[in-house]
Amino acid sequence: MHSPLPLKTPIGDKELTVMMASLMALNALAIDSMLPAFPAIVGNLSLAEPNSIQYIISIFLLGTGVGALVHGPLSDRYGRKPILLIATVGAALFSLACSLSTSFEMLLAMRFCHGLMAAAMGVLVVSVIRDKFEGDAMARRMSTIFLIFMIVPIIAPTIGQFVLLFAGWRTIFDLMAFMALAAAIWVYYRLPETLHPENVIMIEPHALAKAWKKVLIHRNAAGYMLGAGIVQGALFGYLNSSPQLFDEVFNAADFFTIGFAIVALGIAASNFTNSKIVERFGARRVSQTALISFIILGSLQVAAAEFAPTSLPLFLILLTANMAMVGFIGSNFSSIAMTPFGDVAGAASSFQSFVKTILAAGIGAAIGQQFNGSVLPVAAGFVLCGLIALGLVLWCEHGKLFTRPGTAPKIPNNPRG
């Protein structure tokens, strides 16, 4: 679990934060840079059903969910660094394989494998940060990572569109492969091992089952994990159908990259704000306030879909505000769910990532496939997902919101509640 080469200078918190954010950003790039290429792929691979192009996103997310179960336990046994190295190189290779695909079925298969490798860049980022921090301090750093990470969704569609001006959609995959390889080199030379020797866990089925069981029976961890996945599912529902929304609903396909960037700015702004306020107010207070706002804004989106269905400015205002709420919810829910598991951070993070991603991918695909030329399926998805997540939070907190760990009502020793 030692670095292959001695570090000339120890890595600082800032470089570590940027490195972890860059690794996570590769996943955002793998999703968002492809969105402008949807029409070209539909034509090039002769897809009969336009909504089926959305599976390019869903199958990648499915791969990241399944891969999360693998990388976490491996990193608990062999260390964070070697698994990150293998995964980033693997992501580069499968991204190249995507560019060589000759059919839609082959493309989906390679995207799934790409997702399997890319999963490490989500799971192990959380594990590395949890190795070094906990509680609100972890939430603040995760929010900073998400802030840097969110620059990519702002610019990724523009990158994809720029590539399409000079080359085909396959070149986008080539670019992703190059970036993954560059990240692997950075990890090799600069990342120290963060897994403490006393926290090494042998890869044994009963040990994994024990760690996963700890997550499932811990009331707060399970509830916030599921809540995060459900809210993320609403986000994926928008993401899957976003090119079609701009093209078919608002007749503004040329405005897609700008509109997408505006919406992504909402999440970036909220993560920046969260990093400044979460240690003062607490992850629960901030995220629960955001969740209630998410439901209210979703309801306004439903009303707008009914009374102003083709108003792009109103759509962007409400959607950007709602995406900002997702920014407050995501990092804080994840931090709350991970706090009890410092001794099994890799296995706990991988299992939580698996559950959240599979849940979100399934919900997102279901919402996306309901696209019918209207904003209503996405808007209704926001409201329904928000209400379910709020129910889970109320269950976690025994019906009492806006508490902090030091002031929350005591929970019985039985973790099942």
Automatic annotation (TrEMBL):
Gene3D superfamilies: Multidrug resistance protein D
Transmembrane stretches, start-end: 21-41, 53-71, 83-102, 108-130, 142-166, 172-189, 221-239, 251-269, 290-308, 314-333, 345-368, 374-395
Family from the record: Belongs to the major facilitator superfamily. Bcr/CmlA family.
A molecular function (GO) term: xenobiotic transmembrane transporter activity
GO cellular component: plasma membrane
Any Pfam family: MFS_1
Organism: Sphingorhabdus profundilacus
Annotated membrane topology: Multi-pass membrane protein
Protein name, as recorded: Bcr/CflA family efflux transporter
UniProt main location, coarse: membrane
Keywords: Cell inner membrane, Cell membrane, Membrane, Transmembrane, Transmembrane helix, Transport
PANTHER family reported in the protein's UniProt record: MAJOR FACILITATOR SUPERFAMILY (PTHR23502), POLYAMINE TRANSPORTER 2-RELATED (PTHR23502:SF132)
Subcellular location: Cell inner membrane; Cell membrane
Example GO BP: xenobiotic detoxification by transmembrane export across the plasma membrane
Record-annotated Major facilitator superfamily (MFS) profile domain positions: 16-398
